[in-house]
């Protein structure tokens, strides 16, 4: 299933249409789209540059996606993560999950975004005024990811 | 051995990538970092706080005590901030 790491923008409508074209087994689609925000704490950011580890990024996103498929009955998934310089309002990440039932789609979408924040090798450099600063990893992101450490069986049961 | 640096580690070291001849007595990531620190003030500064450093060996996450061999690809970086 597709995992894409790209500099280019994406179109959520076109991506969902392409993912579900000709499919009549899908009953629900969940999407998460992340945008670049113009503030970081009290500071105003004018842009950010995303750096990643080519090769490992695609591999880790593939592994995270495989984990979601092991936990939930998914019919289609898509992860797109951009890199390079982005400005406030720009799209940065897209997660799409499709399943016969809504709960599997919604839960797995949330799982994927939580896990990719802590397990995919990306780093953000923010432009603030005339300077730059690297974004620090947040404990709240680790906690969000840790929530999903429960056995796969429990998550599958919840999805039924 | 190929070593990759990302984010502020790349900036402090002054290179994103380098190829080194691994000394025979260096057998772990921690040992590699100790050896890198002897290569000059930039390395010493970059690796001052190893608690802030994450590691991948051959594109798999690894611990500081992970074993390494000549020919491995070792990446050193701060905690990740994607999404």
Describe this structure in words.
The complex is a heterodimer of chains A (160) and B (83). Chain A has a single domain (3-159), classed as Aldehyde Oxidoreductase, domain 3 (Alpha-Beta Complex). Helices cover 37% and strands 34% of the residues of chain A. Chain A has helices at residues 12-20, 56-71, 102-119, 139-146, 152-159, and strands spanning 3-6, 28-35, 39-40, 43-44, 47-52, 74-82, 84-86, 91-99, 122-128, 131-134. A four-stranded mixed beta sheet of chain A has the order 1-6-8-2, with helices on both faces. Chain A has a four-stranded antiparallel beta sheet with strand order 7-5-9-10, with no helix packed on it. Chain A has a two-stranded antiparallel ribbon with strand order 3-4. In chain A, helix 2 (56-71) runs antiparallel to helix 3 and helix 3 packs across helix 4. Chain A is globular and about 50 Å long. Chain B has helices at 7-13, 29-37, 41-46, and strands spanning 2-5, 17-19, 54-57, 60-62, 73-77. Chain B is α+β, with helices and mostly antiparallel strands and 83 residues long. In chain B, a hairpin with a 2-residue loop joins strand 3 (54-57) and strand 4 (60-62). Chain B has a five-stranded mixed beta sheet with strand order 2-1-5-3-4. The model of chain B has no long low-confidence stretch (mean pLDDT 96). Chain B has one domain: Ubiquitin-like (UB roll), CATH 3.10.20. Chain A binds chain B through residues 34, 50-53, 55-56, 59, 81, 92-93, 113, 116-125, 134-137, 141, and chain B through 4, 6-8, 10, 56, 59, 61, 75, 77-83.
